[in-house]
Structure formats: C-alpha cells, structure tokens
Amino acid sequence: MNLHGVIIAVACFLTIGIFHPIVIQAEYHLSSRCWPAFLAAGLFFLVISAQTENVTVSAILGVAGCSFLWSILELKEQEKRVERGWFPANPKRNKEKEDQGR
Fold first, then answer.
1. Residue 32 within a domain
2. 96 assigned to some structural domain
3. Angle at 30 between CA 74 and CA 93, to 5 degrees
C-alpha cells in the first residue's frame, strides 16, 4: 500500500488551513508590507524542496513554499477585507496613520 499521496494531501490540507490565520495575524500586526518575508520564505522552501531527495518531504516543502507565495496575494486581499470591515483593523496602526496626517 502506498500512502505517499494521502500524506501529501493531508499535509497540503493542513498547510492551507494553517496559513489562513497566519495571513490574518500578519496583516493585523505587521500590515501587508510584510510580503517580502513571505517571498523569502516561499523561495527558501522551494529551493529546499528541489534539493530534497525524499519525494514526500519534497512535495510537502513545495506545498509550503507555494503557500508562502500565495500568501502574498492573500495579504493584499486581507487588507481589502479589513477596509470593508469584514475583519478588525489594528487600532495601533490606525492611530499611527492619524498621527502622520497631522
């Protein structure tokens, strides 16, 4: 019996599920300007994935790398969701914007 596909599928499901709150928290605390960190992490995981000989581990690292890269887009979308009022805005950041406007 070959469970590699099932393991990769579960890892993919969990990775996507974990990245949703990561994006929300990153946008809340750091704003969408933290996207370079997601880019660096995504590229790092993809490079490591390409150098890993174990197919299952390589696939999981590749999924994580692509999830980091996809999160860059989601950061921008999360920023729009906050503007629409679907998620709470960080009051500290709003106060900083007001102080800069004076």
1. yes
2. no
3. 115
Q: Considering the domain boundaries, does residue 74 fall inside one?
A: yes
- Residue span of the structural domain in which 9 resides: 4-90
Of 29-43, 52-66, 88-102, where does mean pLDDT reach its minimum? 88-102
> How far, in Å, CA of 56 to CA of 70, rounded?
21
Report the distance separating Cα 7 and Cα 64, nearest Å. Answer: 14
Structural contact between residues 78 and 24, judged by C-beta atoms closer than 8 angstroms: yes
- What pLDDT is recorded for position 44? 98
Residue 40 sits at φ, ψ, to 5 deg, of: -60, -45
- As given in the structure block, the two tokens for residue 50 are 């390409």
- Top-confidence residue, 19 or 2: 19
Overall domain count for the chain: 1
Q: What is the pLDDT of residue 23?
A: 96
21-49 mean pLDDT: 96
30, part of any domain: yes
